[in-house]
Amino acid sequence: MKKKLRSHDWFGRKDKDGIIYRSWMKNQGMPTDMFDGRPVIGICNTFSELTPCNAHFRDHAEAVKKGVLEAGGFPVEFPVMSLGETLLKPTAMLFRNLASMDAEESIRGNPIDGVVLLTGCDKTTPSTVMGAASVGLPTIVVPGGPMLNGRYKGQTIGSGTHVWKFDEDMKTGKMTQEDCEYAESCMSRSIGHCMTMGTASTMAVMVEALGLTLSGAAAIPAADSRKKIMAQLSGRRIVEMVRDDLTIDKILTREAFENAIKVNAAVGGSSNFLIHLVAIAGRIGVPLNLDDFDTLGSKIPLLLNLMPSGTYLMEDFYYAGGLPVILNELRDLLHQNVVTVTGKNHHENIRGATENYNTNVIASYGQPLIHEAGCVIVKGNLAENGAVIKPSAATPALMQHTGRAVVFESIEDYHARIDDPDLDIDETCVMVLKYVGPVGYPGMPEVGNMALPKKILQKGVRDMIRISDGRMSGTAYGTAVLHVSPESAIGGTLALVQDGDQIELNVAERKLHLHVSDDELAKRKEAWIKPVPAADRGYVSLYVNHVMGADKGADLDFLLGSSGSAVTRDSH
Ligand code: FES
Ligand code: MG
Known about the structure:
Blueprint: H1 8-11, H2 16-26, E1 40-45, H3 57-70, E2 74-79, H4 96-108, E3 114-119, H5 124-133, E4 139-143, E5 150-152, E6 155-157, H6 161-171, H7 177-187, H8 199-210, H9 225-244, H10 248-251, H11 254-267, H12 272-284, H13 290-297, H14 314-320, H15 323-329, H16 346-349, E7 376-380, E8 383-389, E9 400-408, H17 411-417, E10 430-433, H18 454-457, E11 465-468, E12 480-485, E13 502-506, E14 511-514, H19 518-527, H20 538-546
Parallel strand pairs: 1-2, 1-3, 3-4, 9-10, 10-11, 11-12
Antiparallel strand pairs: 5-6, 7-8, 8-12, 9-13, 13-14
Helix pairs in contact: 3-9, 4-5, 5-12, 8-11, 11-12, 11-13
Bound molecules: FE2/S2 (inorganic) cluster and magnesium ion.
């Protein structure tokens, strides 16, 4: 006898409500036997033409549906808020938590027994995983896949990473506007998300490392037919997961999070990984703090030679063997007492798929590209709750440096003065940007790798220490101290920094210190004027009143945890 599923409370009813629940679905041409108690699989689609990285997801949804039907399930596709990194102002990050609420309530309120998350562009992965984690059904992720390698005038170019380079080349006169427009088409020449190890690729690797995807899913390019096969197989698998009651909480254990931290370090993943992983852990109830990333990840070697830290792109990663090769290299460091969506651990999943076809792209654990690559957490009076730095994207010589602060009071102040020839700045200075944290901007945008002053770029200098409470695009590089917490808008010490102060960064000692006495800081705090909140109505007002610090994943405080999947009342 078939187990009674959650969807039975809708479709299995023999009363008036049962008529309502089934009849309207039948207007889509669904035969009566679809409602016979088979697993109903929600396909959570973040398709949008305003999220170009996810604009091919109709095809993926169709492939998932095929798989669900083949396995005897009943597929139902539904949309959730799609967050596109490139267009959405003031930053997609402002809406990650809103999209997570959309995903959560859409899953819980509907007759769904298991859910497939179609994710691609940066925020579409954490938002839907956070939402799904707060419900707790069997869940599988189908990452949308990276774009094919960019090629411009014989050179390989990477999404995002080359935007910063082109911008610098425009400023120094190496590129014209015409060159730039041509390069744009060369960079984004196929469907898919950024093909550097930016945040989207980082998130795809994260979900595979957490065990939420079929093995090898992360690296397959969007344009490769094998991506659709992966989607179809995921459709088949989610039906079995429902039958096995393999719920997301059984996969997202503390061990799974620890594995994801180590893998992220080995692939040179984005600093955004920290915020999103902490937020997901908060939903599933697994304790995870910033120090865990340093303790578990900072000593892990860099094995993947992808931009922005290295040379290659996701397409090359796929041809070299993809994430299974990295999981195999790290096998002695990873917990194997975990279960993934397959019902097996990583070790069992990757059996027979561990050959490295290109050692220039994937290095071995014994001969890594960098010996200690994971993100580092620095603390001090300037960041009592911590700040993040990604050494693999930074300049080694700046890892221990004390310099004079050049302070920008807002992003507008930065834009107005950065290229002013009279700005009192040289390459030994420390650039400080305030009010770009979760509350301050609002939404914590990716402005932390603020471009250097033109006059310094013209000297050939390409990096300086930059400190802010904002984030940095995962596709970017530079010695950026990010996510300073507590943020300036709520009165963190960052708000009190003044031009001319000395700031010390010492990565080896995990130290970020403002050389200003406590007395002087207390005086400055007294005179500090709290900025006016960004909005007094709508979602933004809810956000600024409830968002937690970057160190807590920047989730809304009332979204922590899960409400389960039960809904006891009917709609009629
Ligand atoms: Fe969508 Fe980079 S802009 S993944
Ligand atoms: Mg990004």
